[in-house]
Please model this.
Amino acid sequence: MFFSAVYNLTKEENLIPYMNHAYSFLVQKLWDHKNKGFYWMVDYKGEPIDKRKHIYGHAFSIYALSEFYKATKKDEALNIALETYNLLEEKCKDEYAYLEEFDESWNSKENKAISEYGIITEKV
Model:
């Protein structure tokens, strides 16, 4: 979360409403309350338009939640970050690496969405 990271550097209080809004949108709209994890894409209202799960996006969600926790000390943010980490460990690893793309129910899929340059990887 950009605003949380900037707040952590500057302590500018005018950033607090923006970082709170970003956090709320992340955990209320991008979080899949049924299957856990974060949707790949939602519209501006927070309605899912692409329910796939990507490890790439989840990594950034963990970073965002960590920055927000650092700024606010809200345990909920830390707990969601840890839950996301544990979810990736449970659902996304095989014996060698992490698989990249899943459907909304965490069934592995062929990765086709991450790179617009044709660089596709099945594992990260």
Notes: The chain has one domain: 2-109. Residues 17 and 69 are 15 Å apart (CA to CA).
